[in-house]
Write a sequence for this structure.
């Protein structure tokens, strides 16, 4: 085995013990109750054997606040990210904090392939985190492109971290994300209030977290309204216009009066499929979108949809991190998982029957 020269790093301790960096960090910071005593002892023994010591520079940097926060974005081109970053920037400006942004460009590098390849994300993250640790930052905000679980998210300097639009495997890291269950619930309740009871659903991928949670909300609302939830009326595709087109065509033979599209891009594909058959959205069938993207206002008729609370997610994450920085005795567990509701935007694509 090749021997590494120079001072041992926290990553070396983790590799030697077969554990994650966050596990080593927890033990070194007195949180050994999170792991078994056997693992904790193994880590302490390895630290003693190697003579590992946290960097004095890192300790000094943590001791003096620079009022600078680092933002790690999965990709700035993803539609949800700019509004989240805007919310972060606004709250930081109000509190006198500066912001440094690192764009991992996951879509720019690998398009949608990285969504199912965790190794690509982990490799990029392992390069980015040391870079952020080398800067004079007080804390980090991680901005996801969609809701998923991020592994190995830990600062070797022990910087506090808050998640926006994604969750960390360490659930003690505070998280701000969409309340998708309530979102799906509110869509069905709205459609039922307009007289609809035979409702189709054009969903994203079946294993996507947003899809799963919105379906849970759909099922809850239908149960309350005594409407049978028919799996045959749910069509799973991707979140694109093409996915909506395919899904809508698969529903055309069903006797539905309304369709809930889980994204506005899906809804644009549904419009295309309906218009091909001479079926007018908003008149012959009601169409409901989700996201409130620009697409929703360019469709004819304009699309009734749900506006995502993206700025609120970013603002909440920034305020939570600043709160942790300015109140060292506060516990991240107190703000462990904040889910923010989307808002109904009524336009012309849903009719009353």
């Amino acid at each position: 085995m090749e021997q590494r020269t120079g001072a041992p790093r926290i990553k070396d301790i983790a590799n030697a013990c077969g554990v994650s960096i966050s596990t080593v960090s927890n033990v070194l910071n007195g949180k050994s109750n999170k792991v078994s005593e056997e693992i904790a002892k193994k880590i302490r023994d390895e630290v003693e054997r190697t003579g590992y010591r946290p960097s004095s520079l890192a300790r000094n940097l943590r001791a003096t606040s620079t009022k600078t926060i680092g933002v790690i974005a999965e990709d700035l081109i993803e539609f949800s990210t700019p509004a989240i970053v805007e919310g972060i920037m606004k709250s930081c400006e109000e509190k006198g904090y500066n912001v440094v942004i690192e764009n991992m460009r996951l879509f720019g590098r690998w398009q949608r392939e990285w969504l199912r390849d965790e190794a690509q994300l982990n490799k990029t993250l392992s390069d980015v985190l040391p870079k952020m640790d080398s800067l004079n930052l007080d804390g980090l905000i991680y901005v996801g492109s969609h809701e998923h679980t991020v592994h190995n998210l830990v600062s070797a300097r022990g910087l506090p971290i808050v998640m926006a639009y994604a969750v960390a495997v360490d659930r003690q890291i505070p998280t701000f994300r969409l309340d998708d269950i309530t979102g799906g619930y509110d869509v069905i309740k709205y459609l039922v209030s307009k007289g609809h009871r035979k409702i189709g659903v054009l969903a994203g991928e079946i294993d996507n977290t947003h899809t799963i949670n919105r379906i849970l909300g759909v099922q809850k609302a239908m149960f309350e309204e005594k409407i049978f939830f028919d799996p045959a009326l749910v069509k799973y595709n991707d979140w694109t216009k093409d996915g909506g087109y395919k899904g809508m065509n698969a529903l055309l033979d069903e006797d539905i009066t309304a369709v809930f599209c889980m994204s506005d891009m899906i809804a644009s594909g549904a419009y295309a499929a309906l218009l091909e058959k001479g079926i007018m959205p908003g008149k012959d069938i009601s169409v409901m979108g989700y996201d409130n993207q620009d697409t929703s206002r360019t469709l004819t008729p304009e699309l009734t949809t749900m506006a995502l609370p993206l700025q609120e997610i970013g603002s909440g994450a920034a305020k939570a991190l600043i709160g942790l920085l300015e109140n060292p005795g506060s516990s991240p567990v107190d703000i462990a998982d904040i889910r923010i509701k989307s808002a109904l935007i009524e336009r012309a694509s849903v009719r009353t029957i």
In short: Residues 118-134 form the longest helix (17 residues). Confidence is low (pLDDT under 50) at residues 1-5, 56-61.
